[in-house]
Amino acid sequence: MVASYEQGYDAQAKQSTRFLARGASVTSLTTDLSQRLTDVTAGTSSVYETSSSRFNHGSPRTIGVRVEMSSANTGTLWRRNTAGNTERLSFSAANTIRIVVANATVTELAVTAPTGTDECVIAWVTEANPDTTGAGDAYRSRIMHWNVTDGTFTATPWVAHVAITTASATTAVYGADDSAGASAFAGTMTAAWFENRVQTGAEIAADWVQTRIVVSSDLEIVRQGFPPQADTLDARNQWHGPAMMWVADATRRMIRRTFSPVWNECMTTQPAWSDALLVDSPAIRGAPGASDWRIHRAWRRVVPVPVTASHVWVRVHVRTYVTSGAAVPLGIRAYSWNRIPGVPSEEGGPPEPLVQYWTPTVTISRDDTSTGLGSYSTLGLLPISRGRSGVMDNKTAIAIAFNIDPAAASANDAAERFVLRAVHVVPVWYEPTNGLQIGGLAP
Amino acid sequence: MSNDEYKSVLLRGLDTIVPGLGSLAPLTPVRWAPMRNAMRAQDAILATTCRILAQWSVSGADDWSVPTGTTDPAGGGQAYPDDTWRVLGTYTSRVTPGSVLKSYCEANPSGLVEKLVGSNWVSDGAWGEVRVGVTWTNGATSVGPIYSSLGLEGSAEGTYGGLEPSEPGQAWTECRVREIGTHRPTGFVDDPAVRAVYSEWSDVEITIEVRGGARVEHVAVHEYARAHTTGHDNDGLTSANAMPATAGQLTRGPLTKAVDGATYEEHRFGTRRAMQVAERQSERLGPRVMCWSCWDETDSNIWDQAEGNPVTTTSATFVHLLDSTITSYSGSANPGWIVGGAYAQLHRLCDPTLIAVGRFAAVPVRVTVDAARSAGDGVVRVQCGTYDWVDVPITGARAEYTQVGYLESQAAGDHAAPPLVVWIRVASGTLSVYNVSVDFGWW
Lengths: 443, 443
Prior knowledge:
The complex is a heterodimer of chains A (443) and B (443). Chain A is mainly beta. Chain A has helices at 201-209, 242-252, and strands spanning 17-22, 41-43, 46-49, 61-69, 75-80, 87-93, 96-101, 104-110, 118-128, 139-147, 152-155, 159-161, 172-174, 188-195, 239-240, 263-266, 273-274, 284-287, 290-296, 300-304, 311-322, 330-337, 356-358, 362-364, 375-383, 395-404, 416-428. In chain A, 48% of the residues are buried. In chain B, the strands form six sheets. In chain B, strands 14, 15, 17, 20 and 22 form a five-stranded antiparallel sheet that branches. In chain B, strands 3-12-5-10 form a four-stranded antiparallel sheet. Chain B has a four-stranded antiparallel sheet with strand order 4-11-8-9, with no helix packed on it. Chain B is globular and about 85 Å long. The interface between A and B is large, with 125 and 140 residues. β15 of chain A pairs antiparallel with β2 (28-29) of chain B.
């Protein structure tokens, strides 16, 4: 099939795209690349559509443009409606982006002046205000601005305002106030789009600013399907049909919808630990069967785990450094136990046999310095060792363990310091094709 | 057929069901088995939740704040805490429909407590207590705070009693996991009228408190699916189908009319109800994103305070909530939290075909901040990803301030996504931050 005949062949022509154009200048932005395939008309320093119904949409929506511009460039990027209903996105002065609704300024965004002729992406996002208290704050908007050339990004907070009128389908114009070129933007507009949906900063950046690759994963990724809507086709029919299939499909996608991090913490207290401090103490012990792996009680917690989860994914943020000499390898693991090791049964009698799993060892060897940020280490997927009785029923104890110089490769162990700064533990479902890949059982 | 004023379903003991699609093909007469499975599966989804809505921990602290127990309590001055409650944290959250809350803690034997006799502080023995208070709100109806508390055993060790663990590993072997209680609105179990009020997306404010010599390591409050009830004439969007457990044929055919409220009619057995539930669940179910409180176990004499010391700033530019030396966002290096929304990717933000294309994910959130400012307005910014954040303006005295927006999220459960970072700044004077809660949002 010829690409241009394939619906959605343009990656930026989405189901919600009402207009999309790319070209060398604003007057060449006439060919609509959206799935609507409805071209607009070139005016003086502008493109426009008269009595437009597709642009007669107040919320939710995203209006965006890509421009080549210098510091001195001002002018209108988008305008629709007139007089008291005027809505406008413009450079109101050098390096100041302004949005206007109902002929009143809603907010402005001051941006860093381009150093030359820079490529910039500008978006105006609007949605109904979920916390509205009346007509005066019925909608809210946000401006985002990327200078692609110098890599900067700025944005306003969400700002509440009155509704954008949809009472009249008037001319919509990109690049100037009207088709005759009044208040024309002095830079060069090379793309324009209109979405009937809120776009996040991440989405616009991924489309227009940066290259983001598809996230790799060992897991089945289940997203919301096409959102079900009650009282739609077939909803009261006495035949099985699309509505019930829609129900079943949506329901299948939600079995893990309430999965929520079980340990999500940026440490309030971040002491530095060393080989000398990781000796046996009231708070510190070795991992069962692997006493070189040291665990502080503050690095362990009991958490409930969903019945539909098989594993947790674990990562930690660590600052590791040396007081002198060469960097020392630091081993990190995560453990899952069906109960806290060494703790007698809550109900009397012998405790449940300890079942433990752990992640493969991650070894880092860095000198972040004592004031450096440090960075994240992904420990990966950890099978859940689930308690089966008493207060541990459907709970697991998760712990982070450290081992300074696990392979005895360094002669500088005494100089090693590390700080645990954050722990993230997220429940997941993992179903490998070759069977359950567990870390190992306790010896 | 049921002829009750309320339609209820017990959410305990439900098996997870993956409803089939093929047996619901269009234009085949309705058969009960596949339809029943799909409807029951809707209820089973609610039964899987165990989201942690609030949790507090020593958060990296090597030791507890309460004194170790080596000082003679008969010294005259106060050396140990009294029986005043100390608030470890206050958290706000939405509750998954049909859930009540359960809480538990991990704690070591408690330290000494003192009481004032005349003008002298004397020993009140070694004991501790932890309690969780929950205020339930749904619309204009509210009840609480309703407390559940747990007495913690005292340490019998040391000259005066109440000594901290002192032997290697003793803090592990003496750690106990104890259930604090079940939290629900008064009458939730017994009175369907109460349950009908609080079954559907209630708000809760949760406080975690301790008193005496409590040596708590971790307290968590999590959802526990219990039961869901709606009024017989509720024809709106609801999150549970309330499919009866009977396996037999329920009606001769699907119900095709909407409820009219005239009688206690049954309306759960048709596609209309199923679609309503699918729409509501599909839009609203999601993770609890994060929560944080300012209580720092290493603050000196914090055991003698009614609540933690707020994190403060006088910086006019953003600094990290927990490390003021961090002033700019780094997706790989900033310590922070994680937005674990991989299983809650909404179509309008994360469609894998044309919007996110597997490259990223974004979720709607509601941020609630308990904070105050002394002079100029402050801002608490919750950021995840380079381009998406939520700014919460702090414009007056201590209160809960809230704002909604979008954050980047994990795109898969094992995605090393950028961290969530909380930034604070103030125009003049001092900004004080006590608690931060971030919920999965919907609007």
